[in-house]
Amino acid sequence: MKLLVIEDDEAILSLLKRGLEEEGMVVDTAANGEDGEYLAEVNHYDIIILDWMLPEKSGIDILKDLRSKDIKTPVLMLTAKDAMENKLEGLNEGADDYLTKPFNFDELIARINAIYRRSALKGSDKIVIDDIEVDFESKLVKKNGEIVNLTAKEFEFLEFLLANRGSLVSTEMIQDQLWNSEEFVNSNVIQVIVYRLRNKLGKDLIKSKRNMGYFIE
Fold first, then answer.
1. Which tens digits make up the pLDDT trace of 61-82?
2. Percent of the chain beyond pLDDT 70?
3. Burial class for 203, CB neighbours closer than 10 Å (0-12, 13-18, 19+)
4. Considering the entire predicted model, what is its pTM?
5. Multiple choice CATH, 2-119, 3.20.20.20, 3.40.50.2300, 3.30.470.30, 3.20.20.80
6. For the chain, N or C: smaller number of CB within 10 Å?
7. Residue 11 above 90 pLDDT?
8. What CATH code would you report for 126-215?
9. CB-CB neighbours of 94 under 10 Å
10. Which residues belong to CATH 1.10.10.10 in the chain?
11. Phi, psi of 150 (to 5 degrees)
12. Eight-state DSSP code of residue 55
């Protein structure tokens, strides 16, 4: 899961980035509204965590502009504004959820996962394909009822393919989704991940088209 966090409080921004990455998520950050909106427009994210009060451009104005440009990335508003009219304004402008500061980090993770299941996974907590079962909430994968141990990056790769099942995803899309903009990705890293997943889950699960990408039917 790849997130964009737009937050001007450096302490909160650092805390969120570190905590979300420890949960296995890929995180890009921006400390002002203009930079945040630019990243939201040029990159693909599963969820945007958007502060309301930002320098240069407010979160609610960013939200309005994104929706007016038909950018449908789910948005979780994160703000100190707790008045009902503010919550309603955010939701009416296209926010998917709203969390008031100060917040509990576990609740934030729960809301992020709920948004992701509703959007990318179409509400699914589990997906079963033949003898393979993937539980997105517990991050467990089973084959023939036996738990298969995957690394965090292997699970993220599998989750991304399943969220886009039936569609071919390119190497560039995979790199953008599973690594943040500051990380260098060696060209054969993805091939190694695919090789390991095929060994663990079966050679027929992940299919490929030469020089184009990978997909799960």
1. 999 999 999 999 999 998 877 6
2. 96
3. exposed
4. 0.79
5. 3.40.50.2300
6. C
7. yes
8. 1.10.10.10
9. 16
10. 126-215
11. -115, 150
12. S
pLDDT at 184 over 70: no
How many angstroms separate the CA atoms of 19 and 91, rounded?
26
Residues, the chain:
217
* Residue 154, pLDDT above cutoff 80: yes
Q: What is the DSSP string of 94-129?
A: T-SEEEESS--HHHHHHHHHHHHHHHTSTT-SEEEE
In one-letter notation, the amino acid at residue 156 is E
Enumerate the CATH 3.40.50.2300 domain ranges in the chain, comma separated: 2-119
How far does the chain reach from its first CA to its final CA, in angstroms?
20
Farthest-apart Cα atoms in the chain, separation: 54
Sign of CA dihedral 61, 63, 68, 71: positive
The two structure tokens encoding residue 127: 């997906």
Which tokens in the block code for residue 202?
């079966």
Q: Return the structure tokens found at 134.
A: 């993937």
